[in-house]
Design a protein that fits this description.
This protein has 13 helices and nine strands. By secondary structure, the protein is α/β, with parallel strands linked by helices. The chain folds into two domains: 182 residues, Rossmann fold; 191 residues, Dehydroquinate synthase-like - alpha domain (Dehydroquinate synthase-like, alpha domain). The strands form two sheets. Strands 1-2-9-6-5-3-4 form a seven-stranded mixed β-sheet, with helices on both faces. α6 crosses α10 and α9 packs across α12. The longest helix is centred in the C-terminal third of the chain and has 30 residues. The chain is globular and about 55 Å long. GO terms for molecular function: alcohol dehydrogenase (NAD+) activity; metal ion binding.
Length: 384
Amino acid sequence: MSSSNITANWSYPTSVKLGRGRIKELADACKSLGIKKPLLITDRGLASMAITKNALDILEDAGLGRAIFADVDPNPNEKNLEAGVKAFKDGGHDGVVAFGGGSGLDLGKCVAFMAGQTRPVWDFEDIGDWWTRANLEGIAPIVAVPTTAGTGSEVGRASVITNSVTHVKKIIFHPKFLPGVVISDPELTVGMPKIITAGTGMDAFAHCLEAYSSPFYHPMSAGIALEGMRLVKEFLPRAYREGTDLEARANMMAAAAMGAVAFQKGLGAIHALSHPIGAVYNTHHGMTNAVVMPAVLRFNRKAIEEKIGRAAAYLGISGGFDGFYDYVLKLRSDLGVPETLTAMGIASDRIDELSAMAIEDPSAGGNPVAMTLENTKTLFRDCF
């Protein structure tokens, strides 16, 4: 389908309503989940924007109120979460509209989850069967409304929450984190600044690339990741050049969702490095992924060369691994991505600390080359 009028209804991995103007279905989405008094959760930057006011108007016109919580940091932490849960309880809310980019979506989902729990959030980290500790009856329904195209959190069963004391990002997981309804309206993304379009788009690409490269066996995810990379290759440069290109915006929303579905196969060193950098320096997650991506490709080359060669052929890139690597460099350049962590404003004096955090990150286990403290220090140095 090649037009700006892309419209689709998907039931995989949840109910997804994709298309221009579909934000108008927000109230109906809430009602379909039994939500009568939703709390819209978003970040501070979006709180005063017209798209957010419009969403609140839609809820209010349907008799669902216009409650909003926006005390959300770019990398949400447990303090944001505690404040959000308090607002949810104090307002007598019965569901959440998670609205925004990764931060608003992640915190919104986590508030809905934690509203009925008695344990601290860290007891639900994505470790073994810790998710079974949750009180199922205490989990509120969620409608997710992404306003960027990158994280894919709208179709994810987890949230990333930063510990404000240790500065470590933790993945909080439960199957019920998956929103009951997703509204992906490309018109909500046209106002993204170029730098956010680039960063979020490269996040989607990183999800697809790392899922595809992961050594774990999951052919379904590998196929989704491969097509996700193709969509990014075709449509991210268009969305970056012309923000009002709704065909490009819609396809990037699809690619973002595909990346998040695919990475159940695994992530890797790109995310293992970017998580501690983001936690310590508060950098944009997707842009950080883009900065470290070439170094990680070099680091993993021997383990992924053949696989990347197949991907390159599918993507219409000649030259196998080298051609793919050159494509990544050009894409970064075209999108204005800093070439190194130094250019991003990160100092190299905390490599030991960052490396120790990286090898403990859950993403490290999915890297095609085993990450040790020593080789991770070398990898970090290669990013500066």
